[in-house]
Amino acid sequence: MVITITDDASNQIKEMMKDESEGVRFRFGIKGGGCSGLSYSLGFEYDINQELDTLDEINDIPVVLFNQDIPIIEGTKIDFKQNMMGGGFSIDNPNAIVSCGCGSSFRAKDREGTPGDC
Predict the structure, then answer these.
(1) Half-sphere exposure of 88 (CA within 13 A, CB side)
(2) Pairing state of beta strands 61-66 and 25-32?
(3) Neighbours of 89 (CB within 10 A)
């Protein structure tokens, strides 16, 4: 398994998937941007590219990963925290060598990305 999704995060993702059409998958990956160069991308996906993507099932959730992101996100844990201000996903990536204060941007040893605004 490339990534781990906690029970709290799984429950939240499944709840959000109920609002989507049948056949939806959860996509997790990275994109350029943020003050440290890379930021996480979470969303839903209907179409996958068999050559570029890996499809996995984690906690009964179909998960799509972009193959080139796997070395940078391998071992990542996705959690969901609820607090008085609402809730949000938290991401713990052991491959991040630098993370910014906002927590949504990072830099990896083998990929710096393109820094921008947080």
Answers:
(1) 8
(2) parallel
(3) 18
The candidate with the shortest Cα–Cα distance to 5, out of 89, 88, 104, is 89
Residues across the chain: 118
110 φ, ψ (degrees, to nearest 5): -95, 0
Calpha distance 2→23 (Å, rounded): 22
Whether the Cβ atoms of residue 106 and residue 117 lie closer than 8 Å to each other: no
pLDDT for 61-115, tens place per residue?
Answer: 999 999 999 999 999 999 999 887 778 998 998 988 766 555 556 656 555 545 5
Predicted TM-score (pTM) of the model is 0.82
CATH class for the domain made up of 4-108: mainly beta
